[in-house]
């Protein structure tokens, strides 16, 4: 049985960025594979680097096992109104976007995702965001159910091949449960 006490959490710094980024790419490959074109991975890489250069409004948190290996990650950034389907929904500087929440398969259902979410939400409170936004896909293992348990509700279900669902919750809102 996994001992969650051996997991440590930290905000990603320039020193730990490469390790966090490697984990993110591994998880992206695992979950999306060839569904995403190489250009999209390049754009995502640039976006993550941009977020790391803006610590006043963006943060990445990681969970590390006893071997100092990344076993979980979550990112939070100011929402930039880039998604056409929800364009104009959030006022500037109001919403923070949760993204890239991954927990290694061997470490799931141990509270790691919840703790990463709590760290990101605390950062959002500290920075004055009032709304948390995210989008997920029904085909991602556990994603939709996790976000629902964290108190997010659907604002738009796009369906389609990508099974994209947009969700939000207030920063000050409590999670529904921690199952």
Could you describe the 3D structure shown?
The protein has helices at residues 14-32, 38-52, 112-126, 143-149; strands at 8-11, 59-64, 70-78, 95-103, 131-137, 153-159, 164-170. It has a seven-stranded mixed β-sheet. Helices cover 31% and strands 27% of the residues. The mean pLDDT is 89. The radius of gyration is 15 Å and the shape is globular. It has a single domain (8-170), classed as 3-Layer(aba) Sandwich (Aminopeptidase). The protein starts with 7 loop residues before the first strand and ends in a 9-residue tail after the last strand. The protein is of the alpha+beta class and 179 residues long. The chain is built from four helices and seven strands, in the order βααβββαβαββ.
- Tell me roughly what share of residues is in helical segments: 25-40%
The termini sit apart by: 18 Å
Please, what is the CATH homologous superfamily? Gcn5-related N-acetyltransferase (GNAT)
Specify the biggest β-sheet.
Answer: 7 strands, mixed
Task: Name the poorly predicted regions.
Answer: none
Shape: globular
Number of strands: 7
| Rg | 15 Å
Task: Count the DSSP helices.
Answer: 4
Sheet with the most strands: spatial strand order: 1-2-3-4-5-7-6
User: The CATH topology is what?
Assistant: Aminopeptidase
CATH class: Alpha Beta
Order of helices and strands: EHHEEEHEHEE
Mean pLDDT: 89
**Overall structural domain count:** 1
Class by SSE composition: alpha+beta
Q: Give the name of the CATH architecture.
A: 3-Layer(aba) Sandwich
The portion of residues forming beta strands comes to 25-35%
Pfam families: Acetyltransf_1
Keywords: Transferase
Protein name: Putative acetyltransferase
GO molecular function: N-acetyltransferase activity
